[in-house]
Amino acid sequence: MPFSNSTKPKKRGWMRWCPDQMEIKVTDISADSLLENGFQAVLLDIDNTIIPWQGMVISDAVHAWVGTLRKAGIKVCLVSNTHRPKRLSALAQSLGVVHVPHAGKPRRRGLRQALEVLGVDIDHAVMIGDQVFTDIWAGNRMRMNTILVQPVDGREFFGTKISRALERVLMWGYRRRGKLPTQRNLSADSESQTK
User: Fold this and answer.
1) How far apart are CA 46 and CA 37, in angstroms?
2) Which of 35, 114, 121, 130 is the most exposed place for a label (fewest CB within 10 A)?
3) 3-state SS, residue 88
4) Which residues pair with 100 in a beta bridge?
């Protein structure tokens, strides 16, 4: 099974929620950088990662970004906890990608299913999302690489607003101890920053 081959060390204790990379938005992550880091697949959250919470309209920028990934040979799967599978299916169809409904993040079942559908092992996949306690924790539990992005919109589920306060405390603790990754590790403009 693809998901049984991870070589990444397991994150333990309070580090289990720490992302490997941080970006402002998904479109800051270039296909070239993903390929350079050995990633062949992207597992992608939807709400407040690529669209506003409960939204149906995907921006031209996100459409273009996903198109660039696909053109580069990077497989994409939407992995969502949404309770509206028809909406998820419509969004996936709009982007021309596959999807896993009822993922149940931070449980690993949905991510395992996505890896099986894509035919990619853990070491060559990255989980991208806006929530520490669902997206990042699920990816870390799988010993998968994880990228945290900022929410695209301030409107969200009430329970998520509560977890955001805990996320801020965690991020403060990681930053204070020098554990938080530098933002833009996989940014589209990383080449211009090094020149």
Assistant:
1) 23
2) 35
3) helix
4) 79
Find where tokens 């806006």 sit: 130
How many Å apart are CA 186 and CA 24, to the nearest integer?
Answer: 11
- pLDDT at residue 4 tops 50: no
Reported confidence tier of residue 161, pLDDT bands at 50, 70, 90: low
C-alpha distances (whole Å) from 97 to each of 71, 114, 166 are 12, 11, 32
Q: What is d(CA 17, CA 148) in angstroms, rounded to the nearest whole number?
A: 10
Q: What is the pLDDT of residues 135-157, one digit of tens each?
A: 999 999 999 999 999 998 766 66
Parallel, antiparallel, or unpaired: how do β-strands 21-23 and 75-79 relate? unpaired
Rounded Cα distance between 49 and 51, Å, is 6
Q: What is the pLDDT of residues 101-119, one digit of tens each?
A: 999 999 999 999 999 999 9
The total of other beta-carbon atoms located within 10 Å of residue 191's CB is: 11
Using alpha carbons, list the distances in angstroms from residue 37 to 30, 123, 156.
11, 10, 32
Q: Which two tokens stand for residue 44?
A: 């992608």
Instruction: Answer yes or no: pTM beyond 0.70.
Output: yes
Q: Count Cα atoms within 13 angstroms, Cβ side, for 142.
A: 32
Q: What is the mean pLDDT of residues 65-89?
A: 96
